[in-house]
Specification:
Layout lengths: L20 E3 H20 L9 E4 L5 E4 L2 H8 L4 H16 L4 H20 L4 H21 L2 E2 L5 H13 L6 H18 L1 E2 L5 E2 L5 E7 L7 E3 L2 E3 L11 E10 L7 H5 L7 H24 L4 E4 L5 H9 L3 E3 L4 H11 L3 E2 L11 E11 L2 E7 L7 E7 L2 H24 L1 E4 L3 H17 L3 H12 L1 H9 L4 H13 L6 E4 L4 E4 L6 E3 H20 L2 E3 L25
Parallel strand pairs: 7-16, 10-11, 10-13, 11-12
Antiparallel strand pairs: 1-21, 2-3, 4-17, 5-6, 8-16, 9-15, 10-14, 14-15, 17-20, 18-19
Helix pairs in contact: 1-3, 1-4, 2-3, 3-4, 3-17, 4-14, 4-17, 5-13, 5-14, 5-17, 6-7, 6-12, 7-12, 9-10, 13-14, 13-16, 15-16
The chain binds adenosine-5'-diphosphate and magnesium ion.
Length: 554
């Protein structure tokens, strides 16, 4: 029933050639079709039985992924409504890091329902009003049906992590369990509290570094920062235990303009003196570093060959041209201060690491700053057979970081496998009857739309979706029936509590509220004007900041 009117394929993403303006019903119909097409495109990837998509860029680069946000990003949707759909996936990704496929599928279904109501003569304004009421009520129901999770409860966090990773193709269960453990460890290590005592987890400080080679199971946790650089000079030590680290935002070089402007060289002696002077200046810089008792220097800027030579002679390891973002991570990991003038450098500013070592990984040198004591920045070092494999592993790990952080930050989880969605739908239908009026119809459609999740999960397992929905609704009306969802692996209804299919409340809340907001924005449009004479490109007016914000996926 959901897709009967949909032709599928991407042609619906564009307005017909030559049409420069769509009004009223026509605009709404087109926009709804576009939104549904986008949702349709990623529907089959939902859940553990979901399929992967292979995306080939114009340059011929291949991405194989199950990640909704990534697929949409790569689709390069041109229609403004398609862009709105892509944006909600991005927002979901940014806000909670998981649930990107669900949010888009739900938005598609909400618009589908709205389309039916519009055909029945119900005005979009009424639908929007009803959807808003439903979204608020859904949020209450979600909260009611939540269970709490404490940060010490590793077993529950592990289940949440495993469900988030469950739908991704990154190896067997043992490998996934290993990755999930690393993520939980990393989150707990970098976690902090703000002034009001609220838990803050800054994902920035869980560095994901990756290199092809070995297998995903060899993915490692590094108690510190891994830098994709080599030690500056072959004469320096390759390894330093109990390192004292100077973090610099200073070039150990002589800036050319400083000297050239002032000195006019007229004789070989003068040249000699000049070079000597330069050397002395560099030597002087190294002396300052030695005086601080640093055994490792890491700088964001360059290091002159002469300075490298003196550092090597002093037995100091140096790494240069390190990214600013890595410097910040190093500072959080080692407790060192980033120094902007060598004159300010003293022993108290140095960071500490149990080991700084250069190692060769798949033919490339990397510097490990590890074994830090209580680092506030850590690294997960992803390995895997091919670039595609490690790329998907990285995306999956990002989802898990998002899911576990969301669970810790708010302290609540719900039952997945469609169970929570059936509860929400059941609650909404009961509520719709209380509300009455025309909005009631919209609330009912909202309930149907939320059920697209269990429905799609059932479809992905090859079950009869309608049958499953009817059975689930019946179960959920019984006492303690809330635990039932789709047991994808056994093709039957299952107890999501005993199966451990746990998902963070925050992910579900965000998905439902974003989906309904997107539906609202799209339903409000009843006039599409193109300034190019073809498909509108920049997005219709009044889209309130949903327009393209770069291509970055964090
Ligand atoms: P999203 O991008 O929306 O997170 P996923 O592909 O990760 O999409 O699928 C998430 C859906 O799969 C959720 O509804 C979740 O409850 C469901 N799911 C995950 N693991 C299981 C499982 N073991 N059994 C049943 N459903 C599951
Ligand atoms: Mg997911």
């Amino acid at each position: 029933m959901a897709d009967s009117q949909l032709g599928g394929g991407q042609q619906v993403l564009y307005l017909p050639e030559g049409s420069s303006r769509l009004l009223g019903r026509d605009a709404q119909r087109t926009n709804i079709a576009v939104a549904r097409a986008v949702a349709h495109a990623i529907k089959t990837t939902l859940g553990p039985k979901g399929m992967d998509k292979m995306l080939v860029s114009e340059m011929g680069d291949i991405t194989i992924t199950n990640d909704g946000a990534t697929i949409l990003e790569e689709m390069n949707a041109e229609h403004p409504v398609a862009k709105i759909m892509v944006d909600i996936a991005k927002t979901q990704d940014k806000e909670v890091g998981d649930g990107t496929t669900s949010v888009v599928i739900m938005a598609g279904e909400l618009l589908n329902g709205a389309g039916d109501l519009i055909e029945q003569g119900i005005h979009p304004t009424t639908i929007i009003k009803g959807y808003k009421i439903a979204a608020d009520k859904a949020s209450d129901i979600l909260q009611e049906k939540s269970h709490d999770v404490k940060v010490e409860d590793d077993a529950t966090l592990q289940k949440i992590a495993m469900v988030s990773m469950g739908s991704k193709n990154v190896g067997d269960d043992a490998t996934k369990a290993h990755l999930c453990k690393l993520v939980i460890k990393a989150i707990k290590q970098v976690m902090g509290k703000d002034a009001s005592g609220k838990v803050i987890i800054d994902h920035e400080f869980i560095k994901l570094e990756k290199k092809p080679g070995k297998s995903i199971a060899d993915t490692d946790f590094i108690q510190g920062v891994l830098i994709d650089k080599e030690i500056a000079h072959p004469g320096m030590p390759k390894s330093m235990k109990d390192a004292r680290i100077a973090l610099l935002d200073v070039a150990l070089e002589i800036e050319k303009t400083e000297t050239e402007a002032k000195i006019e060289i007229t004789s070989p002696e003068q040249m000699q003196a000049f070079l000597q002077q330069e050397e002395n200046m560099l030597k002087n810089m190294v002396e300052k570093i030695k005086k601080s008792r640093a055994t490792v220097v890491i700088t964001q800027k360059g290091i002159d060959d002469v300075a490298q030579h003196y550092l090597a002679k002093a037995g100091i390891i140096a790494v240069r041209r390190v990214k600013k973002s890595d410097m910040e991570k190093l500072s959080r990991a080692t407790g060192g201060k980033i120094i902007t003038s060598l004159d300010d450098l003293n022993e108290g500013d140095l960071g500490a690491a149990g080991l700084v070592e250069e190692r060769k990984i798949s033919g490339e040198q990397m510097v490990f700053v590890e074994k830090c004591k209580d680092p506030k920045s850590v690294t997960i070092f992803i390995k895997g057979g091919t670039q595609q494999v490690i790329d998907e592993a990285e995306r999956s790990i990002r989802d898990v970081i998002g899911a576990v952080s969301s669970a810790i930050e708010t302290g609540w989880y719900v039952l997945g496998g469609g169970a929570i969605e059936i509860d929400v739908a059941t609650g909404l239908r009961a509520y719709a009857n209380e509300i009455g009026g025309r909005e009631q119809l919209a609330i009912q459609k909202f309930a149907d739309a939320v059920e697209v999740i269990p429905k799609t999960l059932a479809e992905s397992a090859g079950m009869d979706a309608i049958d499953v929905l009817v059975q689930l609704r019946n179960k959920h009306r019984t006492k303690d029936g809330s635990v039932y969802g789709v047991n994808i692996f056994k093709n039957e209804l299952g107890n999501m509590n005993s199966l451990g299919v746990y998902e963070p409340l925050k992910v579900k809340k965000q998905a439902i509220s974003s989906a309904s907001e997107a539906a609202e924005i799209i339903l409000r449009i009843d006039d599409m004007i193109s300034s190019r004479g073809r498909a509108p490109a920049g997005g219709p007016p009044g889209m309130g900041g949903m327009g393209g914000h770069g291509h970055e996926m964090e």
